[in-house]
Amino acid sequence: MKILIAEDNAFSRTLLKKTLTKAGYDVVAAENGDVAWEILQQDDPPKLALIDWMMPGLSGIELCQKIREIDSAIPIYVILLTAKTDKEDVLAGFSAGADDFIKKPFDRGELLARIQVGRRLVEQQALLYCLIDSIPDPIYVKDSRGFYLGCNSAYARFVGTDPDDIFSRTASDVLPAEQAQKTHMEDLRVLATAEPFETEGWVSDSEGNKVYHDTVKIPYLESAAGSSGMIGISRDLTKRIEMEQEVKRLAVAVEQSTESIMITDVAGIILYVNSAFEMISGYSSGEVIGQHPDLLKSGKHDGAFFAKLWDTIAAGKTWEGEITNCNKDGNYYVEEVVIYPIRNDAGDVINYVSISRDITQEMAIEKHLRQQQKMNAIGELAGGVSHDFNNILTAILGYVALCMNSVEEESKTYGYLKEIVKAGDRATKLVRQILTFSRQEEQEFHSMELQSVIEDSLSMVQTTMKKSIAVETDIEPDCGPILGDVTQLQQVMVNLCTNASHALGKDGKGTLSVVLKSIEIDERMAEEQTVEIHPGSYACVTVSDTGCGMPPEVLERIFEPYFTTKKKGEGTGFGLSIVHGIVRKHRGVISAVSEEGVGTTFTLYIPLLLSDSELQQQEASRASSAKGHGRILFVDDDETVLSMGREILESFGYTVITGTNGRRALEIFEQNPSDFDVLVTDYSMPEMNGHELIRHVLKIRPEIPAILCSGYMEKIEGENLKELGHSAFLAKPLDWCELSRTIQAEINTN
Questions:
Q1: Does pTM top 0.70 for this prediction?
Q2: Residue 194 has pLDDT above 90, yes or no
Q3: Which residues pair with 606 in a beta bridge?
Q4: 744: which of 283, 426, 628, 727 fits an S-S bond (Cβ 3.0–4.6 Å)?
Q5: 650 membership: H or E segment, kind and range
Q6: Which residues contact 670 (CB under 8 A, 6 or more apart)?
């Protein structure tokens, strides 16, 4: 340890130096106060000073005062050497900054002992300073006025200054304005109340980076007189806060995820489930935490399935697959599941996480789409077959019509021919039914009557119903027509009647009742209905059964998609939702009432078509004569249809030129385009189909009517006929009288 001796007496100076050097100290001597002050200004100054009170130049008291003005983290320990013993002198020395006194003449033992005490204090102070400076938490010290007395390196880095430069500065000198104001007011509060204060929040460092500090500010007492300063200690919690925020974000993401998430320990005990799990399973978190996932078992998987699952995840591997579970209400649902282990830092498995996605509806939709694809395939097949079959029917019915024109109506032969026509009509309807049920595109609404729809639907349903079920009908024969689609309404009736037969149970004892009547609903009746309906004339259809009935909670949901009370594999939950959609398409409403043990009644209201202009035009058209006149270019690749059609049309009064295919017909037309009044062509033909033929013809004569005929029941290529230039479209087998009326209408229009 380096010691300064400031003594003007040469003998005393030499004696002191010799004594301290012998004791092992590094001694620097000065013959007066001025020389001593110069030594103390050098780098690495002495840490302890022995100073004579009376010296020329700077006295011991004056030198002591200057030493205390030095800004040093470790103050110099000062011992005054003096022969003065007055109390006032001693107090003056301590006031000047002296730490101790030694009386002259000094005792060697006392001298070394006092120096040893000073040395320990200096070393302790140095150790304390080193410890505080090495602490990574920012620390600063202020006096009673709020001026900095010092700080450690961490605080100096935070404010962007040197620890030696902070002395006597204020917060506004080293901190951003807003932050400085807040810090200064908090520091003054601690100094004024002499009570600790704690604060935390985001602050800016010297580089403008946001850091999160938890700061404690403590007053310190210099004497019994009271508080004379304060210490501020800040803990940088930025990483912890950012980690907590990240954990919160992850927790929110997990909790709000639409996929079911479950965390278990290695024994499978549930530790956490998210909201999606609660919604899908029906169990609350309180009901399942602490339980085993076995409570979700449906019985659809054997023990080997779960043994393999546990073997996989216990080995630290990820398991993926589909699991059928059972929710709290006892309903089955299928989940696509991924289960993976969570490891600690040592690599040991400590938890399992299960992430599941409910695919029950997806599987139902997929099944529905597969069925739809099958129906589309059937439709394609039926469409191809129907084309040829309709050509055959066209020939049969055409030649029968020719025969009927050549025999007397009172003869037996005419009666036989009428029966052939009836059979042909039934065959035509059969083909159209097959096509209509198999195709999936939107249907065209037209004027129709519900009586035949109900009768046909009941006939179909009765073939699969138990014979013990009594079927009662009350069909009003005078119920007027509606604007609708036969196929869709048959689907409605078949679905409702089938559901009614199922409600009668396995024994099949009970009654199925179907009623059709016309009804006029006024404003008062409309308000009394349980469903929203406007005043007007309606066809009212009721389908009732005396079966098991439904509880209110089931009745409320019967029209929801995917909702079904049937066992898995017996229903998809689409039936009544489709029925509801079809009725709405027909501008109608449907309602249901049910009572357990009594039965269920479905009521449909569909607007009547009473004074529709299209209906009047259709009736007038039917009443008009099939006779006509004009030159027709008639095109079909079937020779039988071609020759028979020519003969029938000529019998109506037309001049007919025939073409066996589109290419040949175009050649005929190009020779004399103005010779023809109308073009009638089949659609499906080799070389050039009817659609292409019409396009070429219209390029030559845009105003000529073009009538397209086809054995396919759907719109040709799904396009609008008027946009394609077709004047009309007729389905095969042809109604020749209807064709004649269509030809006359087109000729008259043009």
A1: no
A2: no
A3: 539
A4: 628
A5: helix 639-651
A6: 700
